[in-house]
Amino acid sequence: MALIVLLALSVLGFIPSRAGECEWDVRLCKTEPVSTEMYCLRTGGMDVRDLDPVEMQKNMGFPYYLKLDLLCGFKESSGRAVLEDSITGLTPEAVVSFQDTTHPTHFRPQRLEVELSVASLSDNATCGSEMCEFSWYAPMPIINGSVVYRVKVKSIEMGSQQLHEKSFALNVNGYMVTTEKAENEASFGTEIQAIEDVLRVGSPSHPLWSVVDHAPVLLLPGIPGLAAVLMTATEFQHTSLIEVSLKSPSGSRECLQVESSMIQETLSTESSLFVIHNQELYRFLGNYSLLPLRVPPSDAWEKLLSAVCVSGLVPVSVPHHGREYFYVLGGGLQSGTLYRAEVYDGDVTFTELVDSIGFTACEIVAFYKNLKRSTVNNPGCQVRSAAQNAQTDVTDIILVELLFHEDQEHSYILLTFDGDFQMTEILPEFILYSQRQRHQETSSLNLKFNGMTLNPSTGILYIWGNSLIFSYILTWEEEQSFWHDSGFPSDQMIKYFTLSYDGTFVFVTEQEELWWGQERTDSVFRLRPSQGWNELSHLQALSGDHSTLTVFYDGDKELQEVLYTVDLDGKGSVVKRKIPVVEILSFSHLPFLSTCPFDLEYSVPHIESFNRLQRYSFNPQLVTSSSELHPTRSLALYQGLVYHLLQLHAQYLMVIGDPKESPISRMEHSCNGVLYKDFCLYLSYNNVSGVTTDSKGHITARLPDRVYLDRTASFSFSLFIRAHQLTLESIGERAVNDIRMFARVPNSKYLSVTLQRYVKLNYGGVLYKVTVTDKGMVEGQVFPGEKLLPFSVLFRIGISPRQCFQQTDRGMVLSGLQNLPVYIGCPPGNRLVFDASTAVLEAVRLNRRNFSCLNPDPVTPCFYYKNCPLMMLSRSKNIILFFPILLIQDVVLGESRKFLGSYTFKIVGGGPHSRKNIQLYTPEEVLRYNSLNYRSQKARIWDIKGCKDDRTTCNVTEDGFFIFNGTRNNGIRWLCQPNSPCADVLSKNPAVSPRFFFIIEVSNRDTETYCSHTFRFDILVHDFPMSSSRKCYIVLVTVACFVGVMVTSRSIF
């Protein structure tokens, strides 16, 4: 048994690898400016000073490379292992994923992965043998708007070792500066090299608070006796101990109860760091040029809420509506107050949660209970915690603790706040233990709660302290019930609670016990101490003393433990290791957990249509040397290829579209000229593929990591549950008949799930066809990928209600419960664009006239005034009509189709002669130039042929804007009435016809989608005719001149 455990754990990485046992490693490297040799960074994360977009564009490449290596227990054996395993067929591949910003700009929300084959580069430039030790390298791509990057290394060909894939966080560190000695230092403090002089084995662990999946840099507080934090940009793969440079370390006399030099709490957001020191809140804004920040980076720590004594922070781990939030608990004279912090594009604002008459949470509770309003400053009333429900509008849930007399027990009240407080629930003295019990049991335990955590996708609110209770807040409109997680002893107190947002959670007690549970189940299990943990402790390879600093879920939702270790020589270090939860549970809870008596076979078609994940894959160029090793210049060319395609990818998100265009096709079209001759020769010899087209018929054997559903859309898949042969032999056909699958949605108002069951006795299993459907109940429309409503659909699978585990190529995994994240709203990767190329071709074909400009610009299509822009032309009574041609493009699948919905068409800006004269019109001007309601002002630029001014013959909005229907041909004609900006355009150059730039805004109005497609594009119109008044003036001047000449001639003769 011990041998089996050892093998399982070494694969999972719970213990460090020994000699002969290897695992993947990734480091960021750069080339030396002079020698072009590679050197790797010490800190692991990316330095923002290397990410200047102008410099990258100048060099046509990124500043970093990925070095893929094997760690085999001893450093000197890694290079030999790379060489030996490469000979036997081991070839790695790096997959880089990009996390979009919390507030993406229009057309920017996207999910993107880049698959990179590696290039072999010699580690020794002087080696002349064909058996030189080498390393694998690949470009490290960077995109604007992303500071969180994840690199997954996997083997595409297996050699002598069975290596499992491994993920790494390589984020941008915006908190580093360069000193006068050209050394890197933290911008907010001083790095301490000898951490053993500061850290102590046996110190209590602390929570790691951050905005999940969006914080590039993490801070861990709790360093005893010093205002210091542990900083990492790689999820503790590399860690720095930083002494924080605060201006006022002594704090305020009005706030302090016990003075401490330690940083009590920290919180990391996408662009900022927040710390609490001596009940004062400080903030440091990072230097992130890749983010759309509205404020400059910090030079020093900034004190916030200077008039408030801060007793604690409450994180909101999931951003909502493009903003990050957290709560600040008041202390001292502000005890009982609560502030909500909002971070938007780097700017932070605070709102005190008081109702319309100025009552705080404690005051409103006192009002309801007929107590004195002075309760706000009474230590008998405290705001313990808060949570945020942002399914539609932001609603705050507040946990208030009451202790009005010393001889009374604690009581707790839940309030909700959406501008005014509502008392939702006084937590009862008795709690319902599980859904299987049909009666309520009175608990003799005096409940004491420390905090509260909400998972917005499941709608489960956890309240934790000396007990763990939970409630489904999305059903509070019907009833409010609280359930109890059994298995947790009454003599323990939960210190901090962490969600994985993938269906599981852990919490740590004051005695440093580690507990684990699954959401929507009624049991929790102790991981440490336990029989399984003790068995694993005997197999640990950690030397010397060690203690836990924190536990957290990484970007792959794997449970990780951060430890401080001191070796036999007294050298201290911070290490991270994965906690194998299933293996520990299999030892400690065998009556509950056992081997699964079934196998699961998924069949999921068209997965890219629902997970909206766009992929590109790259290969390095071929080399002709016998060693097949690449020179450094070859690697630079490989990087240039990746850079060029991602630049084309960014341009692909523009508002001018082509139904046959993609970044790959644009790269191929660029080879028609001579500018990229060498580059195109490289493309012709190497396979560059973008997995963005022709996904129809593609079926995968796994569920997607998430599903996006538009209005009334459905996601379907099949699941075959096959009973094991031993199970069939033991209980026969009953094993098949007992196989069941159940589904649960957190809110049936928005989602429905249908299960169709087919018994397949001949195959020894049951086939389920599953469909998840949006009910179309979300109000309004949003931009693609923004303000999505998250839900998590739970599928319970099994022959019995017990959970079980299965052995897979990634180790042991739990089975029987499957969570499917579903996002309702406008899926990312869809856009509405103006099909300029088709418009021009149709205009040329139907008008029999070439639409040319002196200096054509592909971004700004050019048209004649009389044949003007927008599309197909037809003649009716000598009037030329125009019909808009718009496209709906799916940039993930690479598909385009003509837009047939309804939309509005407005001119919102323009200017004569050149682009520098373009001005955006005010809302009043937009109404005058486009609206039918302002027709009497004679300022309209255009109208629709056939629409009368009485509104009865065409569809218009309340503001008087025309509503187009893509299924009909609504002809546009240009008016440029006397009071319009294009009424009288004169050319400054007699050789060039008059021209005018227009900015056009198109917005869809169809109700069959959640998507709000509003975009703007420019067109150039030239060959404007003279106005009637100017024509009359010229005629009069000409006649006058002619008459004058005639009179003069007659007088002479």
From TrEMBL:
Keywords: Signal
UniProt keyword Signal, yes or no: yes
A Pfam family per the record: CATSPERG_beta-prop
GO cellular component: CatSper complex; sperm principal piece
Cleavable signal peptide: 1-19
Record field: transmembrane: none
Chain ranges of the CATSPERG Ig-like domain: 702-823
InterPro entries: CATSPERG, CATSPERG_beta-prop, CATSPERG_C, CATSPERG_Ig-like, CATSPERG_N
Record's keyword annotation contains Transmembrane helix: no
Domain CATSPERG N-terminal: 50-171
Annotated ranges, domain CATSPERG beta-propeller: 184-587
Domain CATSPERG C-terminal: 851-1047
Annotated PANTHER family: CATION CHANNEL SPERM-ASSOCIATED AUXILIARY SUBUNIT GAMMA (PTHR14327:SF1), CATION CHANNEL SPERM-ASSOCIATED PROTEIN SUBUNIT GAMMA (PTHR14327)
UniProt protein name: Cation channel sperm-associated protein subunit gamma
Taxon lineage: Eukaryota, Metazoa, Chordata, Craniata, Vertebrata
